[in-house]
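Design a sequence for this backbone.
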């Protein structure tokens, strides 16, 4: 297996129905095993709903990571927010800035949706994940991480 360097090309694109088998594997790595049928249904739902999106990262024509987002309208808040519901990079491809590129695509999409904040939840046991998000400017309050993204 060839591991991407920081100078290699990783393509970020919107997930397609055919990406479902790889997303099943990635969800298992994240600790959320899911069936192929359910992931296919989630991709169809996401494609039909403009308030949701799933990005995948491709390296050498293989999906090696994904990020899923949803736009939220909290009644108690005065601004729209986006929530990163999942972000995972294949264990064999971590620490090569792929997660950072997925997160940049997520932030860009959230801005296009007029969201002022991008938030996510991450178990406090995921110490490396928390360091990753904090390094990229996310603030931490317990299990919740967030970043003001308005330009």
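Sequence:
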């Amino acid at each position: 297996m060839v591991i991407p360097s920081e100078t290699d090309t990783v393509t970020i694109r919107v997930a397609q129905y055919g990406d479902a088998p790889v997303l099943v594997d990635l969800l298992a790595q994240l600790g959320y095993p899911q069936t192929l049928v359910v992931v296919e249904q989630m991709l169809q739902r996401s494609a039909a709903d403009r308030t949701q999106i799933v990005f995948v990262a491709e390296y050498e024509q293989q999906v090696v990571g994904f990020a899923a987002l949803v736009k939220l309208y909290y009644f108690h808040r005065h601004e729209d927010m986006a929530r990163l519901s999942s972000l995972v990079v294949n264990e064999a491809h971590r620490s090569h800035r792929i997660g950072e590129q997925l997160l940049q695509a997520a932030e860009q999409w959230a801005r296009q949706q007029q969201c002022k904040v991008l938030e996510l939840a991450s178990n406090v046991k995921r110490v490396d994940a928390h360091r990753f998000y904090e390094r990229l400017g996310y603030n931490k309050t317990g299990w919740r991480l967030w970043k003001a993204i308005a330009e």
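Residues 11-148 form a domain with the Aminopeptidase fold (CATH 3.40.630.30).
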